[in-house]
Amino acid sequence: CLYLEFCIVRIGYFGKILKNQLPEKYHNLKALKKRGCAVNLNYDTASVFLYLCAMSKIIFLEETDSTNTCLQKMIAAGDDLPNATTLWVRSQSAGRGQRGNSWESSPGKNLTFSMLMYPGQMDVSRQFVVSEAVAVAIAEVLRDSMPGHDITVKWPNDIYAGNKKIAGILIENSLSDRRIARTVAGIGVNVNQQLFLSDAPNPVSMRQLLGSDTPLEPLLQRFVEAVEENFRNLDSPRLHERYMAMLWRGNGFHPYADAADGSCFNARIAAVEPSGHIVLEKDNGTECRFAFKEVVALL
Asked: Which residues, 6+ apart, have CB-to-CB distance to 11 below 8 Å?
């Protein structure tokens, strides 16, 4: 996305950018219908980009391939982006999920965004705390926004409404000397989409469950604030407790399949370790430890 001739940065709900606040050679402003201003920027101008980030930390693009990829390119180009810089895109052509999975999102209907966070040089052994912080933030905002609906976190960090996936998270940590230097968290939330065309097994949206559209910008702001708040409290034991309390199928025995040999068994969640491994206790009392994609929860 760094090599687009133009990008559009839209600051509406989050505050207006006035024409006289930027050097004239960098802007060509025109009013949006109901949201602040639009700024057409030649992407050679990193200083303008940083100016906008400093004011709002939320950047809107009409289209990019992947918000995580785009944000990583900005970082690689040397942009000194502040904590909680958020890249929000109307349409992404190659949205990514965990382990190379794709993410379906109808343009303009959902929230697809990535956040840059600095977790305070956390030790690499605690990487999963970052995933917990983002997952709990997204799930709690959705729970507050959808009273009466069962919003949970499916290990490791999918967000479920009942038995259907309403949001997904992709965490990419950059490491330095066994420390997490920075985190890029890609987040996709199914908000106003009514029809899903991919072969994803169980997607659902807020629109399908609530019966009406949800405004995107206020919801995005709530997600951003919740993630920021959790990152301020990464060392609190309450974060892991909240994560465990929100786990999908967190109580009782449920069917699973071992991905290595396809064997099926009933088990309950005994623990989720700081490494992110899940410990399942089978109905015969034995415990098994799995990494992501080594075990499948059967619907």
From this structure: 17, 36, 37, 39, 52, 55, 56, 58, 60
